[in-house]
TrEMBL record, chain A:
Superkingdom field: Bacteria
Name of the protein: Nitrite reductase large subunit
Species, as recorded: Vreelandella malpeensis
Cofactor needs: FAD; siroheme; [4Fe-4S] cluster; [2Fe-2S] cluster
Family: Belongs to the nitrite and sulfite reductase 4Fe-4S domain family.
TrEMBL record, chain B:
Keyword set includes Oxidoreductase: yes
Keywords: Nitrate assimilation, Oxidoreductase
Protein name, entry field: Nitrite reductase small subunit NirD
One Pfam family matching this protein: Rieske_2
Length: 834, 123
């Protein structure tokens, strides 16, 4: 076997990491030994969402890969190691700890924030916003501060301003130009943007040139402007643009652009063919590309070059859509209409709803050259497709930006998109790629996402992707059949609405009124589904006669059937807290009925091997000792896992056990499309692993941070931060709404994680519905939850009081004997199925 | 004439015998009875108002090797009444015990009928 060549990558930012992924994906590890040097302490993280670092996300959740991803693939990563020199003659790179030889070198060193040469800029409290370390420094400086100023009102400046707001500082933005975001918006757009941002309590000062920074009088620092006006502040964040980090390349004599940047050709090669450059450090055709998508494209091209391919980088579209301080801003192509002579413009300005839209159209009115949006990016995707694919505009282009009610605003159907249409620019996925994935066997949105990675970068294309997938599935004759089963031509969600609106209380009535013709019995799909819907609407005991034939065996016998036909019994141990007395009762019951005992992952104790006819006696003893059913058998709330919290732990900041118990009692018995797990951690160390739960709660100094839609299991998913610093009441209210909305809208057997991934509009939409009450559903959802909570009763206590219900708990209706086919054997001192 | 009669030379002569009572059954669901003469476990499914309204199948599930069939969910697929195994969810036709997912598997069935309040089985 030939010896491998050595590939060194300098830089472990988003693009550097993508390059490693591409190398792995291309199978190029067979050819290269890869070593990566990252100057930062953290491995590659999501810089696009950096500001969330102040609203609950930590470095780990921002990381772009698992901690052992590199090691698993045999890639060597040196974090926190600065490369100090490239020796091109010897083909080595130099760090403080030694020299490393390379056959190929890729520079992915990115950029650094530019701090204008202002007198006093070295004072303590003068900071920048680029890396996690920068954010740590900002957080430290904010500790004893009440206000902060961002110098620079561009895209990054507004993000920094958002971060300062997140630290509860009075925030001001100072911009040299006459408007905010001068690169992206024009005067009207800038005015509107300023109004909207000021409405959020952020002070905006435009046309201000900062002259010097000196000691403040009321605050730590004072900014003196050109006109000698002053502004006092405790800290300053400079955000006056970025510059390519090209020092290493400069020092070793690679060709550098006039205003910085390592010059590359279409193959990402620098002036030294053994050295490539990608991302924000690279200068292609006199341009630096300060967005992640073109960086990813360069990474792909670089891997092709390294492996002898001929892929070329041909520039990139710099269209962007952003949500800055909650305000939508979008810019497509030649948004200012400056690049094409004869371009014509359409403008729509609504001062009431604070909406600004502008189209730049070719002189013949047929092609879209650019667009600018402030206040609402709703039409961005459609406009981008017109622009990117040079589609012919409708006869009246203005209809694209006029509000819905006053005209058409025809959304561009997926069918009108050509095969080359770029759907996901982060991962370079075209409509043709999606069609190929479908042809190769992907059957739904999730399958397409898995096969193409589309919509797994910034996620901005989620809605578009879904419409393309749905359209293509339909075009392939795959009828996207959303019928629950052959008995009901409705989705679970539709059935839920029918049951609720019509007040239908039994399966029979629902089948009679809405079942498919000719089918009377139902099946093992629709019966448990309808049972769950009825339970989450009315919460009648599942053992009531009308509901009995609907239940899965686990619900019928209120225990979990195991592989030999015996059952396991799991009493509720709320929050995992149990008295010694109750613990002993569990031991005694297990001993008496010869049950195998095991501690579960949800901090409870599972008693296995219970015979059907023993279940009532087992529960009689458990209930007498104060236990209640744990619903381990139901598609319902399982457990609320907790750490010991502030009661015992020196790090705890809230009583996590108390909260876990309160939550478990609040939501016990809630029947849902699938099981629901909670976790409550008493501090940010997260010992309860709450971020892997459907509902995760992490204590803060000020209350609780709420995370939603996490999952362990087959496809682990980190829960996403949903709301921060809630007090107890707000936490209950938010979870009430969230859970009820999930119960209403999810498909059958769909955990919150999958539900969230398929939810159109994603997390933002969910926040709008739950936190901002955009559908005016909040009160109704809370009331419905309250009704369910009030109607809770322990199903086992209910059954034990009713001899009719207990009749089913016997192996044979005509004989007292236990099932003779169940045979147990002994292992490690306990019984198990033979 | 009984359409469910299974010709067999090895078994003793079949006869109709009482198994349990109508009140022991659960409508649109299953219960299990012990058949002393064959030492067998019989799952009984009761569909009042349907024809026929009573079925008897072997309680033993060959996929899990456990006696669980009587605790599955009763339903119909393409018009034919079926029972879904509670463990691995295969469907068995109530009329002849045929597994719909695997044509090689068929559960034993017995002729059953009501006589007044008694359930009779031919075994």
């Amino acid at each position: 076997m030939a010896t491998k060549e050595t590939l060194i990558i300098i830089g472990n930012g988003m693009v550097g990491h993508h390059l490693v992924e591409q190398v792995i994906e291309a199978g190029a590890l067979a050819r290269f030994d890869v070593t990566v040097f990252g100057e930062e302490r953290h491995r590659a993280y999501d810089r696009v969402h950096l500001s969330e670092y102040f609203t609950g996300r930590d470095a780990e959740s921002l990381a772009l890969c698992d901690a052992d991803y590199y090691a698993q693939h045999g890639v060597t990563l040196y974090s926190n190691v600065k490369v100090t020199e490239i020796d091109r003659a010897a083909k080595t790179v130099v760090t403080a700890s030694g020299r490393y030889a390379f056959d190929h070198l890729v520079l992915a060193t990115g950029s650094f924030p530019f701090v204008p040469p202002i007198e006093g800029r070295e004072r303590p409290g003068c900071l920048v916003y680029r890396t996690l370390s920068d954010l740590d420094a900002i957080r430290d400086a904010a500790r004893n501060a009440t206000n902060g100023v961002v110098v620079g009102g561009g895209l990054l400046g507004l993000e920094a301003a958002n971060a300062l707001r997140g630290l509860n500082l009075d925030t001001a933005v100072v911009e040299f130009a006459p408007r905010l975001m001068p690169m992206q918006v024009d005067r009207e757009g800038g005015e509107l943007l300023k109004e909207k941002i000021e409405a959020l309590g952020v002070q905006v000062l435009t046309e201000r040139a900062t002259q010097r920074i000196e000691q403040g009088e009321q605050s730590r620092l004072r900014i003196v402007f050109q006109d000698d006006k002053v502004l006092e502040t405790d800290l300053i964040v400079f955000s006056a643009g970025i510059r390519p980090q090209d020092e290493l390349a400069r020092d070793c004599g690679l060709e550098i652009g006039e205003r910085g940047g390592v010059v590359i050709d279409d193959h990402c090669r620098t002036s030294d063919p053994a050295i490539l450059a990608v991302g924000e450090v690279a200068l292609w055709n006199q341009s630096i590309f300060g967005l992640v998508a073109p960086g990813y494209q360069m990474a792909k091209v670089a891997v092709s070059t390294l492996t002898g391919g001929d892929a070329r980088f041909g520039g990139a579209d710099m269209s962007t859509k952003l949500k800055l301080l909650g305000v939508d801003v979008g810019a497509i192509g030649d948004a200012h209409g400056e690049r094409t002579p004869g371009a014509r413009m359409f403008r729509y300005l609504d001062p009431l709803t604070q909406l600004y839209r502008k189209l730049v159209v070719s002189s013949d009115g047929k092609k879209l050259l650019g667009a600018m949006l402030v206040g609402d990016n709703g039409v961005y995707d459609t406009l981008l497709q017109y622009y990117a694919n040079s589609l012919e505009l409708p006869k009246e282009p203005a209809s694209l930006i006029l509000p819905q009610q006053s005209g058409a605003a025809p959304a561009l159907g997926p069918g009108a998109l050509p095969d080359t249409a770029m759907i996901c620019s982060c991962h370079n996925v075209t409509k043709a790629d999606i069609c190929r994935a479908l042809d190769a066997g992907a059957q739904d949105l999730a399958g397409v996402k898995g096969a193409t990675k589309a919509s797994t970068g910034c996620g901005g294309c989620a809605t578009l992707l879904k419409s393309v997938v749905d359209f293509e599935l339909e075009a392939r004759g795959v009828e996207v059949d959303t019928s629950l089963c052959e008995h009901f031509a409705y989705t679970r969600q539709a059935l839920y609405d029918i049951v609720r609106v019509e007040g239908i209380k039994t399966f029979g009535e629902l089948m009679e009124k809405h079942g498919s013709p000719g089918h009377g019995l139902g099946c093992d799909i629709c019966k448990p589904t309808v049972s769950s819907i009825l339970a989450s609407c009315f919460n009648e005991p599942i053992m009531d006669a009308a509901h009995v034939p609907l239940q899965d065996t686990n619900d019928t016998f209120m225990a979990n059937m195991q592989k030999n036909g015996t059952y396991s019994v799991v009493p509720r141990i709320a929050g995992g807290e149990i008295t010694p007395e109750k613990l002993m009762v569990l031991g005694q019951v297990a001993q008496k009925f010869e049950l195998y005992t095991k501690v579960t992952g949800g901090q409870r104790i599972d008693l296995f091997g219970a015979r059907l006819e023993d279940l009532p006696a087992i529960w009689g003893e458990l209930i007498a000792a104060g236990f209640e059913t744990g619903h381990a058998y139901g598609k319902s709330l399982r457990t609320v896992k907790s750490c010991v919290g502030s009661t015992w732990c020196r790090y705890g900041v809230q009583d996590s056990v108390g909260m876990a118990i309160a939550l478990e009692h609040r939501y016990k018995g809630l029947r849902a499309p699938h099981k629901i797990k909670f976790g409550v951690s008493g501090c940010t160390r997260e010992c309860a692993e709450a971020q892997s739960k459907d509902i995760g709660i992490i204590a803060t100094e000020n209350g609780w941070n709420l995370y939603v839609c996490g999952n362990g299991g087959m496809r682990p998913r980190h829960a996403e931060l949903f709301a921060t610093d809630l007090d107890d009441e707000a936490l209950y209210r938010t979870i009430d709404r969230f859970l009820m909305f999930y119960v209403r809208t999810a498909d059958r057997l769909q955990r919150t994680a999958t539900w969230r991934e398929n939810l159109e509009g994603g997390l933002d939409y969910l926040k709008e519905v739950i936190l901002e009450d955009s559908l005016s559903l909040g009160d109704e959802l809370e009331r419905q939850m309250q009704t369910l909570i009030e109607r809770y009763e322990c199903e086992w206590a209910n059954a034990l009081s009713d001899p009719e219900k207990l009749k089913r708990f016997r192996s044979f209706v005509n004989d007292e004997r236990p099932d003779p086919s169940i045979i147990m054997t002994s292992e490690r001192g306990q019984l198990r199925p033979a | 004439m009984n359409v469910f009669a299974v010709a067999s030379n090895t078994l003793p002569a079949m006869r109709w015998q009482p198994l349990c009572r109508r009140a022991d059954l659960v409508a649109f669901s299953g219960v299990v009875a012990w058949l002393e003469t064959s030492a067998a476990q019989v799952a009984l499914f009761y569909l009042p108002g349907h024809t026929p309204e009573l079925y008897a199948l072997d309680h033993f599930d060959p996929f899990s090797n456990a006696c669980v069939i009587g605790r599955g969910i009763v339903g119909d697929l393409n018009g034919a009444p079926v029972i879904a195994s509670p463990l691995y969810k295969q469907h068995f036709r109530l009329s002849d015990g045929q597994c719909l997912e695997d044509e090689r598997v068929q559960l034993r069935t017995w002729p059953v009928r009501f006589e007044n309040d008694h359930v009779l089985i031919e075994a």
